[in-house]
């Protein structure tokens, strides 16, 4: 019990909320589906990279987009919890802030991974999936979720208004998504744009998943991909913990 | 044993001193009321006592633990019902209680029994597995009380527990609070600005204004401190000297056909007073309320500082619902 009981309690609460708000799953799946169906078929009609259809090329990128968006916007719920005063009950309890943060991160990751699972099931229609690629997708999505949920929660801990939070998050998620190479290969990019893409942690996730899913050689060596996203997740956990410690 | 011992507790927000060097002791098992107008520093004091807010200077011990250095132990010792409801409305009543039990490390074997017991105490058994969203204001308050008590806190803090409830629900809520204090032997510290309710519920009352405790005593003593009950009579030519000789009459004044008496325990002595007077046209008995006590202690101050007693009083009466 003790601290672990607290972490479990917070996770369980997030999970129950997720179960009861089915609209969360549906709304989070719709955007990536539109990308696959509309942009994927639309652009796919005239664009092709290598031996793969445009749809199967962007599929790993869209999986990561789903993980990124859902993770970051999970921070919204902490702003909402504060607004409806639910957060106070948790903040005044003897559970340490670090434990509260971990409970929330686990809750967020569970949400995100379940959404990814649903999307992968639908994904059978768009891209060839193997057991290895599904395992890789889940693992990479989990690491990205840990990092991005931490970012969302850290930012959310500073905000009292939902609108303010949404503006900031939108400013972050779109560049992270567009620069990640989810929609196009990054090798031919002009060097200045390439440099920016290499700063984006999502680039490494997309690169790793695409190489595993399509059986292509990766642009960046796979161990580097994994090292970068794991390092990113670890540092975001640290930042999130600090943010929660100063939260009132 | 003192459950709460406050020593020179002070909180400043920039220029504003919200709590100004308060000293206070609350004994085990007491229902203690902090009374005062909005912005007097009641909530700030409570927030410091539950370690949500760090004091600027001074300190306090809750259940023997220092709020500055032993926050974890203080948190485990206190239960709190906030001014604004903090229930998770998407969860059921039971799930809210289970979450609380986990946050406060209530062992699993104790948890279920305790939850049933509290649901019964608060008359919520039938609704245990309903989503809180559909609960009425009174039910939510009761659930919050149950939640605050779940981990057997030594002190239960209630910040405006009846704010926003209708009169009947308010009365019911107070009844639950009294039952809880007696049955669970919990020390209760509450804030309110419903003077009459505090009078009925609290063992002792501290009146707070501008961050200071300006009066501290039992409700009876506070009221008696005003000098006694008032009897106004419309009567032609009273024998004032004879009335003044009565042991319980403290003051007797006549002004244009009206006699005003300050007496001890007016309801008991009224018949004798009436028997000594002829041709009484009307009688009015006024037993001082905590409102009068409050005006006595704070009204004067407002007068000195703002020089406009009439408006301040009227504003106060308006705020408290004009009860007189």
How would the blueprint of this fold be written?
The complex is a heterodimer of chains A (248) and B (324).
Chain A: H1 3-20, H2 22-44, E1 48-49, E2 52-53, H3 54-83, H4 86-91, H5 97-123, H6 131-156, H7 162-178, H8 191-199, H9 201-214, H10 222-245
Antiparallel strand pairs in A: 1-2
Helix pairs in contact in A: 1-5, 2-3, 2-5, 3-5, 3-6, 3-7, 3-9, 5-6, 5-10, 6-9, 6-10, 9-10
Chain B: E1 2-13, E2 16-27, E3 31-35, H1 42-49, E4 57-62, E5 65-66, H2 71-77, E6 78-81, H3 93-103, H4 108-121, H5 137-149, E7 155-159, H6 167-184, E8 187-192, H7 195-201, E9 204-209, E10 212-217, H8 219-224, E11 229-235, H9 240-245, E12 249-255, E13 258-263, H10 266-275, E14 280-286, H11 290-306, H12 309-319
Q: What key attributes describe this structure?
A:
heterodimer, A: 248 residues, mainly alpha, two-stranded antiparallel sheet, 10 helices, 2% strand, globular, B: 324 residues, alpha/beta, 6-stranded mixed sheet, 4-stranded antiparallel sheet, 40% helix, 28% strand, disordered C terminus
Could you explain the architecture of this structure?
The complex is a heterodimer of chains A (248) and B (324). By secondary structure, chain A is mostly helical. Chain A is built from ten helices and two strands. A two-stranded antiparallel sheet of chain A has the order 1-2. In chain A, strand 1 (48-49) and strand 2 form a beta hairpin. In chain A, helix 5 runs antiparallel to helix 6 (131-156), helix 5 crosses helix 10 (222-245) and helix 6 (131-156) runs antiparallel to helix 9. The longest helix of chain A is centred in the N-terminal third of the chain and has 30 residues, at 54-83. The model of chain A has no long low-confidence stretch (mean pLDDT 92). Chain B contains twelve helices and 14 strands. Chain B has a six-stranded mixed sheet with strand order 6-7-8-3-9-10, sandwiched between helices. The model of chain B is unreliable at 300-324 (pLDDT under 50). With 324 residues, chain B is an alpha/beta fold. Chain B starts with a strand and ends in a 5-residue tail after the last helix. The chains are: A mainly alpha (248), B alpha/beta (324). The interface between A and B is medium-sized, with 25 and 28 residues.
